[in-house]
Design brief:
single chain; about 220 residues; Rossmann fold; six-stranded parallel β-sheet; Isochorismatase_Nicotinamidase; metal-binding; Isochorismatase-like_sf; EC 3.5.1.19; nicotinamidase
């Protein structure tokens, strides 16, 4: 069991329409995270949501590279970049949060991927691995010491965010029943292995206790 304490925060990564089944870049079973994420949010003193928020001509979109198709890789100024279908375009329905997600509980919404020239998987560092989002400083200002991660997708934005959070000095826990992955050639298990190697704890929502409670979350 993991008991919540002062200095804990929940970071829900990219629970957005375009990453749900039927979206532009769907994560299989992605809509299944909404219920667990809502239950988790109800127990945390601090909640942060991230939101992919791309301009329509973002450099990671295959549509911006004539002759290229989604999921091919190209070289951008900062290195290799997977090309994606257009997704989470600013102010589009697909960029909105998942229906039913209790966004009212969020004290902070961080929008990432807003720079046309640079992709952004991590909630802390953009894909050039130099540009900071400012989240680490904001969390420190709020005296956060331990982060519980959930959301989409395990093998992309969740794992990048988790590893960068460790590098920033936070204790990190990933809630495994509140994440889903794309799973390209075993990429989910590879992401989980990388997180374990980095000292990140893996748990389930039912094993998390609210401060002062003696029963797990439902």
């Amino acid at each position: 069991m993991t008991r919540l304490r002062d200095g804990d925060a929940l970071l829900a990564v990219d629970v957005q329409v375009d990453f749900l089944p039927g979206g532009r870049l769907p994560v299989p079973d992605g809509d299944a995270v909404v219920g667990p994420v809502n239950r988790l949010m109800a127990g945390f003193p601090q909640v942060v949501l991230t939101q992919d928020w791309h301009p329509a001509d973002h450099a990671s979109f295959a549509s911006q590279h004539p002759g290229r198709a989604p999921f091919e890789t190209v070289e951008l100024g900062y290195g290799p970049q997977v090309l994606w279908p257009d997704h989470c375009v600013q102010s589009s329905p697909g960029a909105g949060f998942a229906p039913g997600l209790d966004t009212a509980r969020a004290g902070l919404v961080l929008r990432k991927g807003t720079n046309r020239e640079v992709d952004s998987y991590s909630a802390f560092l953009e894909a050039d691995r130099r540009t900071r989002t400012g989240l680490a400083g904001c969390l420190r200002e709020r005296r956060v010491r331990r982060l519980f991660l959930c959301g989409l997708a395990t093998d992309f934005c969740v794992v990048w965010s988790a590893l960068d959070a460790v590098a920033e000095g936070f204790e990190v826990v990933v809630v495994t029943d509140a994440v889903r992955g794309i799973d390209l050639d075993g990429s989910v298990e590879a992401a989980l292995a990388r997180m374990r190697e980095a000292g990140i704890a893996l748990t389930e929502s039912g094993a998390i206790l609210r401060s002062g409670d003696h029963t797990a979350m439902p």
